[in-house]
Amino acid sequence: MSLAVRLLLGLAFIALFVTAVVGLSAREVSRQEVERGFRHRIGAAVRGAQGEIIYEAGAVTQLLPPLCKHDTFVDRTLVDLEGAQGKVGELPLDTVSSLQTMVPAQAKALRLDRLQLVTGDGIILGTTHKKQLGDLDPAMATRLHEKAGRARVVRYGDETHIEIHCTRSSPVVTKKSSVTGKPEALMVGLVASRRVKPILERISRAYGVMLALDPADLPAAGPGFITEQLTIEELPGLTVHAAVSRQPLFDALAQIDSSMLLSGAIGILLSVALAVLLARGLSRPIVELARQTRAVVHGEPRPVKGRGARELRQLAQTFNRTIEELTAMRKRLARTERIAARREVARQVAHEIKNPLSPIRASIENLRRLRDRQSPQFETYFDEATKTVLEEVHRIKTIVSEFTKFARMPPPRFARVDLEDMIRSVASIHDTPAADTGQAASVVVEVEPVAAVMADRDQLVQVVTNLVQNGIEAARDDGTTPKVTIRLYPMSARDVCLEVDDNGPGIDPAVRQRIFEPYVTTKKTGNGLGLAIVQTILHEHGGEIMAGEAPGGGARLILTLPVDGPPLLEKAPHSSADTQGELPPS
Question: 415-562: which CATH number, 3.10.310.30, 3.40.50.2000, 3.30.565.10, 3.40.50.720?
């Protein structure tokens, strides 16, 4: 995963985490505050309703007593009843007519829903409801005999009222009461009331709370509503039910959620933008530095330049110094390996030269001895001895020539080489029908597409030629028509593989581990330096060679080559960077 992607994911995760933690905490706090506000609101509404109802009851209580004491139509009615000795049927017609007008007018002036003028026996003399005029209402008579000036809750049909009454008694006329059955002063009274429902509706509009006397008129308690019940002690029998919708709470929470989501989205976008900027500022110099280092490792002798942060410049400077040291070490190691290889070959050459020196010396010593003796065999032995000396000298010359060839092998000159073209060129030279040379040899090439490799073409030609010739000679020595198969295929994106199979007798397992040492060979002819030279060339190219058995019999040589050549430079990239990590322009 690239640095840019990691920065992007990391900052996005931080933004999401912070938004989630802070957002959920803020949402919960906001929800609690809004819930508390709603609870306070319904409590205030219920308390307001209680106060309003008590106020209405008190207002009615304060309005009615002055009427009984001082109002003229009450005084006149009582006087007329005194004159009629309490008989309603003997009241003057103008009194009865005026009461039918005065009582409704007075009720309207005092904002009363009901107002009735009633005698002590319960006969209705004046009322806001004309259908009841002149009726006898025992319940009214009973109320007039109760304590006056105290509000109470009553029902008229389906309506609940707050009711209060007051009375006025005659000091001169007495009459037997229809309620108590005892003589008592002649009495008239006013019974007034106001409906509770309009009061609750007014309070509901003022506080935004639904109020009702019957809980069936309100929504059921649940997730959508908060409900409470209010009992007014000042008005026994009056219970008010309240409900507040939670929808404003839900709307407030939805608005909070939208704000949180918007903030989170903005945070993520800012994080992405910041990650992109950081990635450009951090990953680009790193990617460029990596590209330069790959170029240097693959053979381009140019110092890398670190851009951006001070640490990257210091890294580039350190890399340049390291490459210089590694290049010098590689050169020293190459020289050491060449010297060691030459010493080994020289030791082998010395050993090989000793063998022909012995017969040369013996031949010369015999000639000298025969000559000193004036032996007649001198002439006869002379031809044989000189022939032996010349053969052994030729043998020494061949050994020295091969050693010189090995010792003078130049270092590789690297360039991009098309391996397929090079292999087919070598194969075409050694693929000879019997009709051409009398000695048939078949060389088959099997190639898969591979990249051009960084190598010395001439030295690779020498490698492939040596292996093909070894295979052909091994098969001919075994009495078999030579067939050599060359396979080329990619091992990975960085390496290619070359296999050379023959149909000869194969490699003796006893010498397989030493087959690449100088002067180790399994052929009837040869000096044993060919595979040693092949191994040296491959090592200088950064490759390897292994010996094994082909599936159908015979030998198999497996070569691996890096596409970009040896991993270290032949020439160090010289840098004059100062101690601050600044690198010179390339």
Answer: 3.30.565.10
